[in-house]
Amino acid sequence: MLLSKSRFYATCVRIMSPAWLVAAFAALVLTQLTPDLATAQEKRSPWFYHAVYGRYMLDDDLEFEDEDYDIPLLGFDAQQPIGGAKLVYGIEGGGFFSWESEERTIFVTSAGDSGARVSAVVDINSLLFDAYAGGYLSFEPMKGIRIWAGAGPLILWGWRETESTTADDEILISEEESGFGAGVYARMGIDIIFKNNLGFTTGARITETSLTFDDPAGEVNVEGWQFYVGLVYRQ
Predict the structure, then answer these.
(1) Which pLDDT belongs to residue 31?
(2) In angstroms, rounded to a whole number, what is the distance separating the alpha carbons of residues 146 and 201?
(3) Measured torsion, CA atoms of residues 58, 60, 65, 68, in degrees rounded to the nearest 10
């Protein structure tokens, strides 16, 4: 059955509408680019995975007997290249887990008129976890050596329990806190990769976050430097 002239014109207008034209053009572009994208993916640098162990140097205003306040950490991340030749750029993501279960001696000011400084033993138990994602740059000055740096936002959760006692085992205060926070990070590292695509890595990361815990002798800000070593795998 033949279409009437008016119906024929209406059908042409519907086919030639902007939405259909855009959809058709997009399909044509994707069809043409698919082989090029596959080829580019084959030419890109491989993925890199890191598994590390290190120490988290927490920022605090406490006065410990051993001066430093650092706790152990474990971390894992993946880096996916997007483009670049000598200077490769891409995206990364991962997580760090830190914990503490030990006694530390701190100095506090006693209550009363004397205001004398006394030592107290604090039993600390804590868990920290942060997840992060950002961008990175990397380059290889020589075969098997890879230097990289990354930065981006992070989110974190923490739990902390403290119980402080005097030398006479008198409990001064017992507290428990938990909460979420957000922040930013920046990090850099060096990978030394062998022929089997496995190697060693070392690096450092600095964080700034909004999570803070109140301690019997001050405050502990969940931020600071992290130093670590571990393994790298190139896929």
Answers:
(1) 45
(2) 9
(3) 30
